[in-house]
Every structure is written in C-alpha cells, then in structure tokens.
From TrEMBL:
Family named by the database record: Belongs to the bacterial/plant glucose-1-phosphate adenylyltransferase family.
Keywords attached to this entry: Glycogen biosynthesis
Domain Nucleotidyl transferase: 17-228
Pfam families registered for this protein in UniProt: Hexapep_GlmU (PF24894), NTP_transferase (PF00483)
Record-annotated Glucose-1-phosphate adenylyltransferase/Bifunctional protein GlmU-like C-terminal hexapeptide domain positions: 286-356
The name this protein goes by in its record: Glycogen biosynthesis protein GlgD
The keyword Ion transport appears for this protein: no
Length: 373
C-alpha cells in the first residue's frame, strides 16, 4: 500500500470521557499498561505499508506530541514522506456529535494536494484493533468504489457498544444506503470504525465543495450527504475491536486485556503494536507481593496484593495494599494498607495509607491526574 497516505483525525468527541481526557486528547489516553490509543492506528498504518502519515491535531495535544515525537518508534522518521503534524486553528476542546474537523482539513489542503500517493486512508483513534488494510484496499478496487468505510458487525446482544457511535446500513453487495451519526437508539448492528478509504483527488474535491456550502463536519457533510451521489461501500472487519466511547468502555476493554486470547489477537495478530520506548528496570516484586491475573509494566514496584488489574510504568504498591479490578496509570502510588476496587487512577495519583475506594464494575471510580487522596 505504498500508494496510500494515512490521515489520523484527532477531532473526536469525548464528552463521555471527560474524567480521563481533561488534560489530553482521546488519542493520548493510556491503554494496556504502556500504550496510548494512537499507537494502534499508527502501527496499523506502518504494518500495512503506509509511510506517509499526517495527524490532524485538535485541542490540547501537548501530551500526544510528546509521546509521538519524530515518529521513530513507528519507522516514520524519514527523509521522504514520514510523519507530519497538521496544526489546528481551533483552540476549543472537541465536543458534541459533530466536531468541526472539516475546516482544519481545508486549512491543510496544501499538504494533502502535495502528497504523491493516489489514495488516502482516514482514521480516528477510538477504534482499538489490529488490522492490515490490504484486504480493505483490494475490496475497494474490486468494487470500483468511490469511498469504502470499514465497519464491525455485532450481534443484537452487543447493541450497547453502538450507542452514540456511527451506524451503517448496507445492501447484500456491501453498498451503504444509510448512515446514522450518534443516534440515541441503535437501529443497526453495523458499527463504523471511522476509517475511510478513497482517492486523494476525490477527498480534496469533497472538502472543497463541502466547505464552500458551509459544511463543518467530515462524516456528515462529505459522506452522509453523498450516499446517493457516490458509490460508498462498507468493508466488514472480522477481528477484535475495542471501541472507546465512554469511561465504562475504556474500563471494560482494558479489563478484557487480562484474557490471554484477547491480548494475543490485539497486539500480535496482524503485526506488532509499537509505542514510545522508555528505558526502565523490570518490575520488582518484593517478598510479600501477591499478583494474580494482572498486567504489570516495567518500572513498577509491588509489595502488596494485586488481582485482575493493570499497572502502568512506575506504579508503586506498598505493603498490605490491595488492588482489585483496577487500573493504576504511570507513576501511580497506593499507600500501605490502602484498598481499592473497580477504580481508575490516572497518572501521578497517590492514594495515601489506609484509604478505601470502591466503585462498581459498570461504574468505576475515576481519580483524575495528579490527585492525592
């Protein structure tokens, strides 16, 4: 797929993730002990042979830029093509069902026009999966499609995962005949991954025409409004998908990583997932440490009991502390005798000695970054 350029759209609504996205964009949310959400789409691009990647920034992206740096970890620090940060003229955080991303695409048309690839593949960061795009690219060419949208088909019992997302309705041959963006009630079981494949020239024309008519949102004004005018097809993705739309989604999909089969498929099925390299000593388990069914990143020091939990780099669990069904992000610390269950502790959170915090599996407690309890 050397003839395809990748674009990552950070204009993603995160109204239901405000506790975690207060100081960062959705793409910078830590996930799986040592990764960020953007690691998955960047790794998917490079594993598919895409070497020209532009990131359309939005809101407060400082932490994300620090994580990505030159793109070296994803083999994108290149003299030709490579990684490009596309600035946003908007200072507000992304909110609502229809982020105003179209204006920023329009303001960066010079980069899109000057790229040498014929096709463009757009993706957000909330769809966490391991995918090689070559099959979707072949499907796009075989169908002679103008636009191909990747989607995941769920059973009726998984309808909760589709609430507040973009849903598709297709014919038997895969052509999309209807789209619903953030419906209150799900009326389809085909969840859009917000991944769009098309020719670059068509993408430029869609942006230009939509902005000229007052359009502000890419999905609504470029795709939804052109269902009858363009040949838009849906390509089904069959692998594991973690769609992060809310705090509960983030918590449940993080806990799913404790299942070895899920971990194996997400991180190795179609190539490795890469992230920023941080040198640190291996995790240290002291004499009284007890750890079961957990992910523990390097640099952690454990003297207490950890069960069904995820510890990020540099986490410290003191003696007699008990961690159950919880997520402790980077440099988090749980003091002696503290007990936490069903809790998400953001970076640099400190739980002092003897404290007890208990949430519910369907409603975890979130402790914001840098808080001391």
């Amino acid at each position: 797929m050397k003839n395809v350029m990748g674009l990552i759209n950070l204009h993603e609504s995160h109204d239901l993730l405000r506790e975690i996205t207060k100081n960062r964009p959705l793409a910078a949310i830590p996930f799986g002990g040592r990764y960020r959400l953007i690691d998955f789409v960047l790794s998917n691009f490079i594993n598919s042979g895409i070497t020209n990647v532009g990131i359309l920034s939005a809101g407060n992206s400082r932490s994300l830029m620090d994580h990505i740096r030159s793109g070296k970890e994803w083999d994108l620090a290149r003299k030709r093509d490579g990684l490009f940060i596309l600035p946003s003229l908007q200072t507000d955080n992304v909110q609502g069902a229809f982020p105003k991303d179209l204006v920023d695409f329009f303001n960066n048309l010079d980069y899109i026009r000057s790229s040498r690839q014929r096709y463009v593949l757009l993706s957000g960061s909330r769809a966490v999966c391991n995918i090689n795009y070559e099959a979707a690219f072949r499907f796009h060419q075989e169908k002679n499609a103008d636009i191909t949208i990747l989607y995941k088909e769920y059973s009726d019992t998984d309808v909760r995962q589709m609430t507040g997302a973009t849903l598709l309705e297709t014919t038997s041959d895969g052509r999309i005949v209807d789209m619903e963006i953030c419906p209150v009630s799900a009326r389809s079981n085909k969840l859009s991954l917000a991944m769009y494949l098309m020719e670059r020239s068509l993408f430029v024309d869609l942006i230009d025409a939509s902005v000229a008519r007052g359009g502000t949102n890419l999905a609504r004004d470029c795709f939804l409004k052109n269902l009858e005018n363009l040949r838009i097809y849906g390509f089904p993705f069959q692998g594991y998908l973690a769609q992060i739309n809310s705090v509960q989604d983030y918590f449940s999909h993080s806990m799913a990583l404790l299942t070895p089969a899920v971990w194996q498929e997400l991180f190795f099925s179609n190539g490795s997932i890469y992230t920023k390299v941080k040198d640190a000593a291996p995790a240290k388990y002291q004499q009284d440490a007890q750890v079961r069914s957990s992910l523990v990143a390097n640099g952690s020091v454990i003297a207490g009991k950890v069960e069904n939990s995820i510890l990020f780099r540099g986490a410290k669990i003191h003696k007699d502390a008990r961690i159950t069904n919880s997520i402790i992000m980077q440099n988090g610390e749980v003091g002696p005798g503290a007990i936490i269950e069903n809790v998400i502790c953001d970076k640099d959170v400190k739980i002092t000695a003897g404290k007890r915090l208990k949430g519910e599996l369907n409603h975890p407690i979130v402790i914001t970054k840098g808080t001391v309890i």
